[in-house]
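Lecture 7 notes: from sequence to structure.
We start with the chain below.
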Amino acid sequence: MNGNTKLLACRRLAISMALLSIWLGVSTPLSYGAGVWTNEPASASQITDWGFSTLTGPGWGDEGGSVSIGSDSSAPLSPSTVLQHQFYVGMPAGISPGNTWYLFPQPSPEVYLGFWWKASVGFQQHGSNRTKIVFLSDTGGNPLFFYMGGAQGSSYYIGMQHQNSDICNDHLSGYPGICGTWDIPSGATIYPGQWAKIELYVKKSTTRTSKDGILRYWVNGVLAREFTTMNFGQNLFSSVPIVPIWGGVGGTVTTPGTFSYDHMHVSIPSGGASNDQPPGPPAAPTIKNVTAP
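Predicted structure tokens for the same chain:
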């Protein structure tokens, strides 16, 4: 069964369940999207399920730049509107076409994130072999991000990076002596022009050194990496900035390209209890320096 067949099956199942609940007189918020986020914890409470019909909405903000709502009939979950970040000719390395973000109603130590994404055919990869896709930020910074990795070619891989200058994870197998920023690549292959479903579940460690934090991410439904003894900083997750930074240092874009996003789903597993008593307000996303063409 290929990805499209699976997606259609999920849609039929969820629609059938919704019709059954109506017939039984039960009111539920279930949509076909509930059958798509297959690795979302059963206990999770949705805080956004955004189809990118507009740039802004409840919890969603945008700072302009080379960003727009486009039309793409191939969008797998909520066609045909998609969010598009355009990498324009002359754009220098180290910046993003724009900054679109979702701000949590309340910070949380535990998050599930799911979205569909693709790079355009012939996308110009930066010479550092890395273009960022999306961040998961907390009230103190931007500790996690997904990236498209690999040299210029017909395929790439999805990776993550954890960056926190004073957190050590040197106890993890394969990462001896790692403190601060460390790379989390995967063998998950993606192809420009084809949609990829990316999912992330992350839970902060109890303390900075307790070795009980969890990080799992999936690409097209397949587990790409998993850690269950991670250390994290203690600032709570608070936003999802869509800031696809090109590179890297040095160089400019010579061939225009696009990163497209179809739908983004964010939920808080286990109630997302905060250690902040009473919970303070969420912090605004911290990645905001964008140069427009």
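Points to note: Confidence is low (pLDDT under 50) at residues 1-33, 273-284, 288-293. The CA atoms of residues 30 and 106 lie 23 Å apart.
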